C-alpha cells in the first residue's frame, strides 16, 4: 500500500491523501489551498489523482480546505462517502465556493477588458461541476463499517471539530494481511458547546495526525467562555453596538449558542442579535437538522424545541438591503457577519461604517491570518484601509482567544494516545500544520517513545 500526500504538508490547507493498493485507489479528502501563496495553478493541479481510476472518495469533514477541489474531479464515477451532516455542509460550502470562483473570473475579465488585455480568466469550477460531485455523495452514520473499495473498509468516528466531522479509520487487506490506517481529519477541542468530544484514535499501524496547533495549548474552555460572556454582558449594559466577524460554519453557531445562554440567564439587558450572513444562516439551519450529532445539553435543547425558539429570536439578514439598513443603524445590537478574518464579506461594510465611531465594540474570536484586516486590528492598527478608504479606528477592539475548533498540543496527544494510554501506532505522519507547529509536536511525540514521527513534504509517498 502506498499513500501519497497531496497537500497540507508544512501548511494548513489543501488536505488530501491518495491511498493505492494493488486492487484499489481511494482518495481521502481533496481540499483547496487557501491564503497567501495559494495560487490558482496550485489548486488546478490534480495529478497524481486520475478521477476515472478512483474507486472511492472518503471525506473527513466539509471545510473548504478538505473538500474544496472535489469539483475538479471531472469524470468521477465512484461514490463520495461522508457522514450525513458532512454531505449537507459540503454541498453548501462547495456551492458558495463555485459562486465565488465564477464571480472572480467575471471581475478579472472585466478588468482585463478595460486595459485592452484578452479576457481569458476561467473559473476554477462552477455550479455544474458541483452538481456532479453532489450527485455522487453518500451519507453514513458514525461507527458504521462500510466497504468503500475492493479490500478496503472504512469507519467514521466523531472528531468534534464541526458538525459531521470525523476521523477516518481504514482497514486495508492486501496479500493476506490487514493493516489499519487512521486519518485524524481536524481534531476538535474537548468540552466545547454543541459538539461531542473527539473519539480517541483506535489502535493502528499508521496514523495521519493534524498539527495545526501542535506547538501550544489553548487555555481552559471555561475561562474562554467566561471572558466572552463578560464582554458581551458589559457591552449590553453600556448599550454598545458589537461587531463580531465570524466564519459561517462552526463559529457562527457557537456564538449563537453563547448568546442564547446569556439571554436565558437574564442578567443583562436584552440586545437584538443579527446574523448577517446568508451562508451562516443556511449552515445554522443544517445544524438544526442533525441534533443526534450534538452533545447531551444541545441535543436536549433541540428536542425540547427551545433551541428553535431561541433561533427564531435572531434577526436574519438575508438580503443586501437588510445588511445596508443595519449599517446605518446606531442602535445597540450584536452583529455576527462574515468573513471570520475580515478579508471579505459583509463584515467589511459594517467595519467601514462603524470603526471610526466611539461606543462600538469589535469582538475578534477567530484566528487572523497574516496580512488580513483582522490581523491588523488584533495588532492595534490606528487606521485601516477598507474599500480604498482610510478608516480611523476609534472602536474598542477586543480579542478572545481559545475558541478554536482545533485541539491544542495536549488535545492532539491525548487523541493520538487513544484509550490504551500508549502510542496508538509505530508511525505517525504529521500533516495539516505549518513547519514550526508540527516540528514542536514531533518533538513531543518522539520524547514519549514508542513511535516514529514523519513530517512529509507534498507528494511524498508513505509505504506500508
Describe it.
This protein is α/β, with parallel strands linked by helices. It folds into two domains: 2-216 and 405-463, 4-Layer Sandwich (Metallo-beta-lactamase, Chain A), CATH 3.60.15.10; 221-399, Rossmann fold (3-Layer(aba) Sandwich), CATH 3.40.50.10890. Helix content is 33%, strand content 22%. It has 14 helices and 22 strands. The chain has helices spanning 40-44, 64-67, 84-115, 127-134, 221-237, 251-265, 278-288, 296-304, 306-312, 320-328, 347-354, 373-378, 409-417, 435-448; strands at 2-5, 16-20, 25-30, 56-58, 80-83, 137-140, 146-149, 152-158, 166-174, 177-183, 206-210, 241-245, 273-276, 315-316, 333-337, 360-364, 383-386, 389-392, 396-399, 427-431, 452-454, 461-463. Strands 6-5-4-3-2-1-22 form a seven-stranded mixed β-sheet. Helix 2 (64-67) links the parallel strand 4 (56-58) and strand 5. Helix 3 packs antiparallel against helix 7 (278-288) and helix 10 (320-328) runs parallel beside helix 11. The mean pLDDT is 93.
Features of this protein?
single chain; 464 residues; alpha/beta; Metallo-beta-lactamase, Chain A; Rossmann fold; seven-stranded mixed beta sheet; 33% helix; 22% strand
The helix tally amounts to 14
Structural class: alpha/beta
Largest sheet: 7 strands, mixed
Q: Which of globular, elongated, flat, extended, rod-shaped describes the shape?
A: globular
Question: How do the strands of the widest beta sheet line up side by side?
Answer: 6-5-4-3-2-1-22
Can you tell me the CATH architecture of the largest domain?
4-Layer Sandwich
Number of DSSP-assigned strands: 22
Amino acid at each position: 500500500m502506498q499513500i501519497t500526500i497531496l497537500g497540507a504538508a508544512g501548511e494548513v490547507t489543501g488536505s488530501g491523501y491518495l491511498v493505492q493498493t494493488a486492487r484499489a485507489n481511494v482518495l481521502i479528502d481533496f481540499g483547496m489551498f487557501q491564503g497567501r501563496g495559494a495560487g490558482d495553478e496550485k489548486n488546478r493541479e490534480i495529478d497524481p489523482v486520475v478521477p476515472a481510476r478512483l474507486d472511492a472518495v472518503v471525506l473527513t469533514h466539509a471545510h473548504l480546505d478538505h473538500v474544496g477541489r472535489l469539483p475538479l474531479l471531472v469524470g468521477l464515477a465512484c461514490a463520495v462517502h461522508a457522514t450525513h451532516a458532512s454531505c449537507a455542509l459540503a454541498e453548501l460550502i462547495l456551492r458558495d465556493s463555485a459562486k465565488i470562483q465564477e464571480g472572480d473570473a467575471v471581475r478579472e475579465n472585466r478588468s482585463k477588458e478595460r486595459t485592452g488585455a484578452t479576457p481569458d480568466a476561467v473559473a476554477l469550477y462552477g455550479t455544474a461541476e458541483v452538481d456532479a460531485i453532489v450527485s455522487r455523495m453518500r451519507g453514513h452514520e458514525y461507527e458504521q463499517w462500510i466497504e468503500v473499495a475492493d479490500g478496503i473498509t472504512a469507519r467514521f468516528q466523531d472528531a468534534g471539530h464541526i458538525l459531521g466531522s470525523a476521523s477516518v479509520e481504514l482497514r486495508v487487506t492486501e496479500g493476506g494481511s490487514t493493516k489499519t490506517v487512521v486519518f485524524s481529519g481536524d481534531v476538535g477541542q474537548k468540552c466545547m458547546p454543541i459538539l461531542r468530544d473527539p473519539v480517541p484514535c483506535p489502535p493502528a499501524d499508521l496514523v495521519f495526525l493534524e498539527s495545526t496547533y501542535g506547538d501550544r495549548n489553548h487555555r481552559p474552555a471555561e475561562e474562554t467562555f467566561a471572558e466572552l460572556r463578560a464582554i458581551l454582558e458589559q457591552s449590553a449594559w453600556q448599550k454598545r453596538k458589537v461587531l463580531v466577524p465570524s466564519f459561517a460554519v462552526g463559529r457562527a453557531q457557537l456564538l449563537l449558542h453563547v448568546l442564547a445562554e446569556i439571554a436565558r440567564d437574564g442578567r443583562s439587558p436584552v440586545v437584538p442579535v443579527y446574523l448577517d450572513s446568508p451562508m451562516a444562516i443556511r449552515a445554522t439551519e443544517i445544524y438544526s437538522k442533525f441534533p443526534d450529532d450534538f452533545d447531551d445539553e444541545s441535543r436536549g435543547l433541540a428536542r425540547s424545541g427551545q433551541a428553535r425558539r431561541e433561533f427564531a429570536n435572531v434577526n436574519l439578514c438575508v438580503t443586501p438591503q437588510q445588511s445596508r439598513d443595519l449599517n446605518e443603524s446606531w442602535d445597540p445590537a450584536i452583529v455576527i457577519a462574515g468573513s471570520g478574518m475580515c478579508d471579505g464579506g459583509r463584515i467589511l461594510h459594517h467595519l467601514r461604517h462603524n470603526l471610526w465611531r466611539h461606543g462600538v465594540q469589535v469582538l475578534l474570536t477567530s484566528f487572523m491570518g497574516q496580512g488580513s484586516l483582522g490581523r491588523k486590528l488584533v495588532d492595534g492598527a490606528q487606521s485601516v484601509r477598507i474599500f480604498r478608504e482610510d478608516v480611523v479606528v476609534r472602536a474598542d477592539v477586543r480579542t478572545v482567544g481559545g475558541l478554536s475548533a482545533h485541539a491544542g498540543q495536549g488535545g492532539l496527544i491525548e487523541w493520538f494516545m487513544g484509550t490504551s494510554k500508549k502510542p496508538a501506532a509505530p508511525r505517525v505522519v504529521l500533516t495539516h500544520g505549518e513547519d514550526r507547529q508540527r516540528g514542536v509536536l514531533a518533538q513531543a511525540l518522539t520524547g514519549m517513545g514508542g513511535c516514529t514521527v514523519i513530517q512529509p513534504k507534498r507528494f511524498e509517498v508513505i509505504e506500508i
